[in-house]
Write a structure and sequence with these properties.
The complex is a heterodimer of chains A (289) and B (575).
Chain A (H helix, E strand, L loop, with lengths): L19 H15 L7 E5 L14 E4 L6 H10 L4 E7 H7 L1 H10 L3 E7 L34 H7 L4 E6 L3 H13 L4 E6 L11 H7 E3 L9 H8 L5 E8 L6 H4 L17 H10 L5
Parallel strand pairs in A: 1-2, 1-3, 3-4, 4-6, 5-6, 7-8
Antiparallel strand pairs in A: 5-8
Helix pairs in contact in A: 1-6, 3-4, 5-8
Chain B lengths: L1 H9 L1 E9 L3 H14 L3 E7 L6 E11 L12 E4 L4 H4 L9 E4 L1 H4 L9 E4 L2 H7 L6 H12 L4 H11 L5 H25 L19 H11 L4 E4 L6 H11 L5 E4 L3 H13 L4 E6 H17 L3 E7 L16 H6 L8 E3 L4 H18 L2 E7 H5 L1 E2 L15 E4 L16 E7 L4 E3 L13 H19 L6 E3 L6 E6 L3 H11 L4 E6 L1 E3 L5 H6 L3 E6 L5 H10 L5 E4 L8 H11 L2
Parallel strand pairs in B: 1-4, 4-5, 5-6, 7-8, 7-9, 9-10, 10-12, 11-12, 14-15, 18-19, 18-21, 21-22
Antiparallel strand pairs in B: 1-3, 2-3, 2-13, 11-20, 17-19
Helix pairs in contact in B: 2-6, 5-6, 6-8, 7-8, 9-10, 9-14, 11-12, 17-20
The chains are: A alpha/beta (289), B alpha/beta (575).
């Protein structure tokens, strides 16, 4: 499929020049095109923030909801029609801060969605405050003496919760990011891809150069099926590993666990209530024996 | 005798009282089940403490020759199961109340000579059968005997009720019921109580659902196929019913991590073509408020089953109140339309919940089914819900390539497409958006979009449910109520016996019925009955109908109004 099926044409994009978000947008379009996912079979779900604007820049169905709340509707969309490809994509503040509780429980629920998180370690939309992934000592107009809260480690949390697919990418390497995204999108069940993406306006510490110097790829011999090893690698902070940390191929997805698609694979919108069953149910209320 | 007169008019009122976990529910379940099966009109309601064990909980069971569906103060027969039960109900016990039980369990509470106490050795009989566990069934047998049931009917029902148990359990329970039944004659003589209640031929074909059952089945009949919720009393019973029957009926039922997730899931589900509902109570709903606003902006349907309980904050978790009208009405930042139903009967709970799905889909807005602990937990026999009267109306359109989700239309309703159905793309945004669903800061367009969304309210007004007038359309005095108080106020008016006094019950409280001012201004005196402290519905009427209701009967103790209480209050006002 040609990448341009996702092109919006001449549009006014609200991101700053040089922002890492552009790279993610391009890579995502390529990954989707290479996977032959048609725009009408895809739903992009996002919350609020700079990254959360991405559905507006890519021609497809989208649900741009509330701050922090991308994952619950994404879960429901997939469950209502499992034939759709569903991507929940937002920034680190949206997914890990405001939406932190949903992040934890969506992993436990394991819907067949891809969760892409633009991680630039800073708040962009609200102009430069700390995000959950901001590093210790990072100074902002609010954290004036520097961040003192322990940075949130999304990979370690996801692996601890036995997420089915956990990866980290750096958008400075478009090709490798694309390959990771393609694997994530085709994974059955929940897949997390945390993507390092420099904020050129509000984060003067974690720059393109900084990410280049502070990241490296997991070696080719690395086995992503070993959960303990994956957890250990996720805890590394001196230099941050990139690649697929963890895969558990043996988990069944939420939409399979809800128990209504085994006998009947029609999406919910095609269904009608079973009137005879309902009549029987009404008769049986509080009837003994 | 006064008591016999009351029983003739209103049937008999039996109250069971004991600690949580003592078996009140066993007696209640078996007794109401066998009575209903034998064709008696039955009503049951409970008040209970927020604890799993201990405390003092009571259940009122009314049995009558005529249909009954309201809570009364009067107790004809009290079955106290532990010490504390009699003090708990002190205000409702009269010289006529027959108390049956075991002095050994009740302590000095029964020693007063003012009480009409009859010793009934439930535990001894149970122990003779080998286990004190049978004492609840012994008591059930006694009550069945007092009510004039036939022994073979009672035994037959007990067999059915315990049919899944071991053979000796079944036969011992039958023996327990028989032994209890035989005690009835003695109680009747000692307490000088004669009960003549006859079965009603119509009851056998009826059903006996609770408010929670009625809401859940109404949702199913309305095509609900997705429920996301976080448990909270008193809404949990609706969630449990849906969960129990969900899989077999093709309904996804998910307990979310919090109420915020629950409503965002429901909106996501509607977006992708499901018909979704959340069930919650005030405190949980408070967390859903941003989601209600999201539904307003996305123009998403969503059905909210909101069971009220006393608040603020955690309030009285297991009690009842009608104080969340304003919360439901104003929940959500910004201005957008909504619909609020407030069923007063089980029938209304069924049909209005089903209707909520059709209207949510049609008008693309939040629709509330505002109930309360009293409505949800009470049950009585009622005509079987007629599924053929409910039509699942779907308003989803198949999209073409040039589809625009928010096309501006004269009635404000844009044809609603869903992803995966048609060639178009469905784009929705919580930001102000253009017709295609993309973010806009075109302030002229913003104004047009607000107008478009609000126009839907005008469309919804054309389909408002008319308030119910009872019994006469000519009246001097008009008593207004809404939601769960309907059967209580209705019976209070019957008790009052004033032919110039009618009742006007609202089962849809918003949008307010446009003829409200006409109904009210016809009366010489208007009284409102509400289960809150600030007369919230009266305020809504003042705001939307411009009518100031002078007389207010308000209650916010956590208990439902009783029939007698409303009758006395009305009598004072209408003298």
């Amino acid at each position: 499929m040609d990448t341009n099926v996702f092109d919006m044409g001449e549009i006014d994009i609200a991101w700053c020049p040089g922002c890492g978000d552009y790279g993610i947008l391009n890579v995502l379009k390529k990954a989707l095109a290479e996977l032959d996912i048609a725009p009408e079979k895809l739903v992009m779900v996002s919350g609020i923030g700079q990254a959360a604007k991405i559905p507006h820049y890519l021609k497809t169905n989208f649900f741009n909801g509330l701050h922090g709340r991308a994952l619950p509707p994404a879960t429901a969309i997939k469950a209502a029609n499992p034939s759709m490809t569903v991507i929940a994509e937002s920034g680190d503040g949206d997914m890990y801060g405001e939406g932190g509780n949903h992040f934890i429980h969506t992993i436990r629920r394991n819907p067949g969605i891809t969760n892409i998180v633009h991680n630039n370690m800073v708040y962009g939309l609200t102009k430069g405050q700390a995000s959950p992934t901001s590093q210790l000592g990072f100074k902002t107009p609010v954290q004036v003496a520097g961040v003192t809260l322990e940075p949130f480690n999304p990979l370690a949390v996801a692996i601890a919760l036995d997420a089915g697919f956990v990866a980290r990418a750096f958008i400075g390497d478009a090709d490798k990011t694309k390959e990771i995204l393609k694997k994530a999108i085709t994974h059955k069940g929940y897949a997390l891809v945390d993507i390092f993406q420099p904020c050129v306006t509000f984060n003067k510490v974690n720059t393109w150069q900084w990410f280049k110097e502070h990241t490296y790829y997991l070696e080719d011999s690395y086995d992503p099926h070993d959960r303990s090893a994956a957890f250990k690698r996720a805890l590394e902070t001196e230099k941050l590993p990139l690649g697929i940390f963890y895969i558990n191929p043996n988990k069944s997805a939420f939409e399979d666990n809800v128990g209504i698609y085994q006998q009947d694979n029609r999406p919910l919108f095609e269904r009608e209530p079973d009137v005879n069953r309902l009549r029987m149910l009404i008769r049986k209320i509080r009837a003994a024996g | 005798m006064v008591r016999e007169k009351h029983i003739k008019a209103q049937g008999i009122s039996i109250v069971l009282c004991g600690q949580a976990g003592m078996g009140i529910q066993t007696v209640e379940g078996i007794l109401t089940g066998m009575l209903k099966l034998a064709g008696y009109n039955v009503f049951a309601t409970k008040e209970y403490m927020s604890r799993v064990r201990g405390g003092n909980n009571s259940t009122e069971i009314r049995v009558s020759s005529k249909p009954v569906s309201a809570y009364i103060d009067r107790i004809d027969i009290l079955v106290p199961l532990n010490k504390g039960a009699i003090s708990h109900l002190r205000d409702r016990i009269s010289a006529d109340t027959v108390i049956i039980g075991e002095a050994e369990l009740l302590g000095d509470e029964v020693s007063g000579d003012k009480l009409k106490f009859v010793e009934t050795p439930f535990t001894k009989i149970a122990n003779d059968l080998g286990n004190k566990i049978y004492s609840n069934v012994v008591a059930t047998g006694t009550l069945a005997g007092l009510l004039g049931m036939k022994l073979d009917e009672v035994c037959e029902y007990i067999k059915r009720a315990f049919s899944t148990k071991a053979a000796d359990m079944i036969s011992n329970n039958v023996k327990a019921a028989e032994a209890g039944f035989r005690l009835a004659a003695d109680v009747s003589t000692k307490a000088d109580i004669k009960i003549s209640i006859s079965p009603d031929a119509g009851v056998k074909d009826q059903i006996i659902p609770s408010g929670a059952d009625a809401i859940a089945i109404g949702a199913m009949a309305g095509g609900c196929n997705f429920v996301s919720a976080y448990p909270m009393t008193p809404s949990t019973s609706v969630l449990s019913f849906m969960a129990k029957h969900g899989r077999d009926s093709g309904i996804i039922v998910e307990q979310a991590e919090d109420e915020i997730s629950a409503i965002n899931m429901a909106i996501g589900a509607w977006y992708c073509g499901a018909r979704a509902m959340v069930t919650t109570s005030g405190g949980g709903f408070a967390l859903m408020v941003e989601g209600v606003s999201l539904a307003g902006m996305l123009e998403s349907p969503v059905v909210i089953s909101l069971g009220q309980r006393p608040a603020p904050a955690t309030g009285l978790p297991t009690r009842t109140e009608q104080a969340d009208i304003e919360l439901a009405l104003y929940a959500g930042h910004g201005e957008f339309p909504r619909i609020i139903f407030a069923p007063g009967t089980l029938e209304q709970a069924f049909y209005l919940t089903a209707r909520a799905f059709n209207l949510a889909d049609k008008f693309q807005m939040p629709v509330f089914v505002l109930s309360d602990q009293y409505l949800v937990d009470s049950y009585y026999n009622t005509a079987a819900f007629d599924v053929s009267k409910v039509k699942v109306e779907k308003y989803v359109v198949k999209t073409a390539t040039d589809y625009k989700r928010y096309e501006i239309t004269p009635d404000g309703i844009s044809p609603r497409g869903i992803p995966g159905f048609g060639k178009g793309l469905v784009c929705v945004d919580s930001d102000e958006h253009d017709a295609e669903g993309h973010i806009t800061e075109d302030l002229g367009l913003r104004t047009r979009m607000v107008d478009k969304r609000l126009r839907k309210l005008e469309s919804a007004k054309a389909e408002v449910i008319e308030p119910q007038l009872y019994p006469n359309c000519k009246y001097k005095n008009l008593v207004v109520c809404w939601g769960s108080t309907y059967p209580v106020v209705k019976e209070a008016i019957e008790l009052l016996g004033k032919s110039d006094t009618s009742l006007l019950h609202y089962s849809q409280i918003y949008p307010l019925h446009p003829q409200t001012a006409d109904y009210l201004s016809k009366a010489k005196r208007v009284v409102i009955v509400e289960g809150n402290a600030t007369a919230q519905f009266a305020k809504l009427i003042k705001l939307h109908a411009g009518f100031d209701i002078e007389h207010k009967i308000l209650k916010y103790s956590g208990l439902q109004f009783s029939v007698e209480e409303v009758a006395v209050a009305l009598k004072k006002i209408l003298k």
